[in-house]
Specification:
CATH superfamily: P-loop containing nucleotide triphosphate hydrolases
Strand content: 15-25%
Strand order of the largest sheet: 2-3-1-4-5
Structural class: alpha/beta
Helix content: 40-55%
Order of helices and strands: EHEHHEHHEHHEH
Number of domains: 1
Radius of gyration: 16 Å
CATH architecture: 3-Layer(aba) Sandwich
Distance between the termini: 29 Å
Number of helices: 8
CATH class: Alpha Beta
Number of strands: 5
Length: 195
């Protein structure tokens, strides 16, 4: 069974879509009762372990399980039953589904047993060529046009899957300038997290 928390919202999108930029721009407008975090959190031991695996030639099931462990571990710190407190993440377990879709939705759902998913996802939709250009300008090693196209396709599959269970997916055009994207995100946060 897939369970959702109405006080948990995640921003998703391919590399180069502007998730981190948007979060940094809206942070000052987020009330104190909203915790903003990244998944995985590289400030943790588990996040450092994941960071060490990125780009290494290892069985991708290892990274899938590490990312799942990170999401589940973070959730243990969250009080999703306390509705006066909200959580906003830069990625969540949904990203693990997207990056590991080759293993199938059933397998990934089983790996995330007892994980409570955000009721709302903000998906930053962007043309892969625009994302590629942004990543190249930052000398980011994830600038791979073929992979970006693959991930966009996977996001479509994964988000459709979770929509069928009742997840709300809000799509924002991330090719707009960062101020407009941040403004669009804040509108959704204010509406869906009731702040």
């Amino acid at each position: 069974m897939i369970e959702f928390a109405s006080n948990f919202l995640s921003i998703e999108g391919i590399d180069g879509s502007g998730k981190s930029t948007a979060l940094s721009q809206i942070k000052e407008f987020i009330p104190v009762n909203v915790e903003v975090f990244h998944d995985p959190d590289i400030a943790t031991d588990l996040g450092n372990l994941i960071n060490g695996f990125i780009g290494q030639d290892c069985d991708s099931r290892v990274s899938t399980l590490l990312y799942a462990a990170s999401s589940i571990s973070k959730q243990k710190e969250m009080n999703l039953n306390f509705k006066d407190y909200m959580y906003l993440s830069d990625r969540c377990a949904i990203s693990t589904f997207v990056y590991s879709l080759e293993y199938g939705l059933d397998y990934l759902t089983n790996v995330h047993t007892n994980y409570i998913y955000p009721k709302n996802i903000i998906y930053l939709s962007i043309d892969p060529h625009v994302a590629f250009k942004r990543l190249k300008s930052l000398n980011d090693s994830s600038a791979d046009l073929k992979k970006l196209n693959y991930l966009i396709n996977n996001y479509n599959i994964v988000l459709d899957h979770f929509r069928s269970y009742g997840m709300k997916v809000h799509i924002i055009d991330a090719s707009k300038n960062s101020v407009e994207v941040a403004s669009d995100i804040l509108k959704i946060i204010r509406k869906e997290l009731v702040i």
